[in-house]
Specification:
29% strand, 5-stranded parallel sheet, alpha/beta, 5-stranded mixed sheet, 4 helices
Length: 203
């Protein structure tokens, strides 16, 4: 899986880097699907001592290639396979209760997972300086309808029909870190019914 290149956009749009090993009291990894590849790439350059203090939370992808065996082989004493993103986030929040100063966080995979994980980590009072992110895999977005406030996961088309209020939305690059979601605005607000065909733009 090649790394994703994002065109320059507005200031609120998240920017992602490449995971790199840091000095820390513990290392918490949260990943889904192809995000495992970023962890495995980091492992090629990281000191083996890092994995003795690692906690890996992983959500397998839908394709059947889950990377579980390769991740388990890293030897992390805490290794958790989550059935879905919400389960992974629940595990992360529980781990934050015992978090020690100096813990480093590594988030990788889809934007929906990374955004929600970063929101929960920072809500626990941890500085963003302790968090790294690297995008891997699907470009699908987590979108909030600004009209009904409903949130939809894994949005791949633009425009997109809100499943809550059924309005057709233009999926903007504007991103709310508080909600961990991109914003969707009614596309035919000034000309009701004039909705262009939906295109798969976030595969």
């Amino acid at each position: 899986m090649t790394k994703t290149y994002f065109e320059p956009s507005i200031k609120s749009r998240p920017v992602y880097g490449v995971l790199e090993a840091r000095v820390g009291s513990e290392h918490v990894f949260v990943a889904n699907a192809e995000g495992a590849e970023a962890i495995l790439d980091l492992a090629k350059a990281a000191d083996n001592d890092l994995w003795t203090k690692a906690h890996i939370i992983y959500v397998p992808g839908r394709s059947g290639e889950t990377y579980q065996d390769a991740l388990k082989a890293l030897g992390a004493p805490k290794f958790y396979i989550a059935s879905n993103v919400q389960s992974a986030l629940n595990r992360l929040v529980r781990s934050l209760e015992d978090c020690r100063m100096g813990t480093q966080f590594y988030l990788t995979g889809t934007e929906g997972l990374m955004g929600q994980a970063q929101r929960d980590i920072m809500a626990a009072g941890i500085s963003h300086m302790s968090i790294q992110t690297e995008h891997r895999g699907s470009l699908a977005r987590r979108v909030q309808c600004v009209h009904c406030k409903g949130v939809a996961e894994d949005v791949t088309t633009d425009p997109y029909q809100c499943p809550h209020c059924e309005l057709h939305l233009f999926v903007r690059d504007h991103y709310s870190r508080r909600l961990a979601a991109f914003q969707g605005v009614r596309i035919d607000a000034e000309d009701h019914g004039n909705v262009p065909p939906a295109e798969e733009v976030f595969p």
